[in-house]
Amino acid sequence: MKVTDIMKNRMLFSFEVFPPKTPDGMEKLTKEGGVLDDLYQMEPDYISCTYGAGGTNVGLNLEVLKAIKASGKTIPMTHFTCIGNTKEGMKQQLQTYLDNGIDHVLALRGDLPYGWTGTNGDLHYATELVKFIRQEYGDKFTIAVSGSPEGHIASRSLRADITYLKQKQDMGADYIMTQLCWDLTQFERWLELIRRAGITMPIDVGIMPVLSPTAVITQSLSRNGSVIPRDLARLLTKYWIFPNPFAPTEEEDAIKRKLDDFRKAGIEYTIGAIDRYRLLDIDGLHIYSLNKAEDVMTLVKDSGIRDII
Ligand code: FAD
Predict the structure, then answer these.
(1) In this structure, which residue's CA is closest to atom 39 in ligand 1?
(2) Which class for 172: exposed (0-12), middle (13-18), buried (19 or more C-beta within 10 A)?
(3) Cα–chain-centroid distance for residue 268?
(4) Omega of the bond prior to 19 within 30 degrees of 0, cis?
(5) Does the Cβ of 279 fall within 6 Å of ligand 1?
(6) pLDDT in tens, 234-258
(7) 274 with 11: CB under 8 angstroms?
(8) Which of 152, 197, 222, 276 is deepest in the core (most CB within 10 A)?
(9) CATH placement of domain 3-215+271-308
(10) 126 lines ligand 1 (CB under 6 A)
(11) 75-111 pLDDT per residue, tens
């Protein structure tokens, strides 16, 4: 089954997980009754697993994907990047995925480690990776690519970024997974622009749950340069922990209360964003689970997304 076939009939619903850095984290994710088992209960069409810069966690990425495949509960999808990878190395890794029944891939350039000016690999952009995978493997892989509704943070312009997105389609990509974007007005504008540019690929929208003030600030600013719209800024302000949430000096109880209140308000905010996305012409909702099944289950249950897609 290909996720693109599902999208022809209805909206997709999926999760992203990441390979934990510690054996304890891995155990929590993959053990019986662990995070993955909780996520399966929500019947996702697929679960994708991130791939670390330089391929440092490639082993664990594969372990997580193999566990998903072995469960038989959903389609495993790997993220894959150009960072530090030779063509020969990529062929070996991609073949290993196929040998393990993993035939869905999100083809990315990858985040450049601090101080790097390029990928230090044989391929430099996601477009080249899509072309490479199609050349080497034909239609064996279903290929997703990233799309940045606000424009990639390093792009010369939104127009240039859209041109490269069109090239990914021309090279044979199947669908778009979007970068986190809380600014829905910008998302609508981008949607109109890409359709006008001849990009017809289905769009699976990445949803970052709003769960903690420090996470929102970090996710927005550390790599993506995403806008925090006024309604989200209002939440951050309302539950602000003084002097700042990264180095709080308030009483422990007060901090805990504010964090709990923020999480509840954040889940409500995320549900509102999901509702607004659903009104647009999108083909899927991809929830960044952050390996936190409990909060994600609340989000899915309270939003009713599993029943209304
Ligand atoms: P590209 O599409 O190659 O674009 C990179 C930059 O180069 C952009 O500014 C673009 O405008 C420009 N560009 C593109 N093509 C050309 C060209 N031919 N000539 C000149 N300029 C060009 N990163 C990870 O390391 N691991 C992950 O697992 C991971 N998962 C992700 C999941 C999702 C859903 C998303 C949206 C992103 C993910 N990322 C991940 C982050 C991603 O790798 C970064 O955003 C990275 O900086 C860009 O990757 P890309 O594939 O969008 O790059």
Answers:
(1) 110
(2) middle
(3) 20
(4) no
(5) no
(6) 999 999 999 999 999 999 999 999 9
(7) no
(8) 152
(9) 3.20.20.220
(10) yes
(11) 999 999 999 999 999 999 999 999 999 999 999 999 9
Whether 15 shows a pLDDT value over 80: the answer reads yes
Which residues lie across from 81 on neighbouring strands? Answer: 108
Q: Is the pLDDT of residue 306 over 70?
A: yes
CA of 65 to the centre of ligand 1 (A): 22
**Cβ of 116 below 6 Å from ligand 1:** no
Which tokens belong to 80? 């894959």
- What backbone phi and psi angles, to 5 degrees, belong to 241? -105, 125
pTM more than 0.90? yes
User: What's the CA angle centered on 77, arms 22 and 174, to 5 degrees?
Assistant: 145
* HSE toward the beta carbon, residue 133, CA cutoff 13 A: 31
Separation CA 184–CA 181 (nearest Å): 7
Tokens of 212: 């903690």
Structure tokens at 283: 């083909």
Amino acid (1-letter code) at residue 27: E
State percent of the chain over pLDDT 90: 93
Which of 18, 61, 111, 187 should be mutated for ligand 1, with most atoms under 8 A from CB? 111
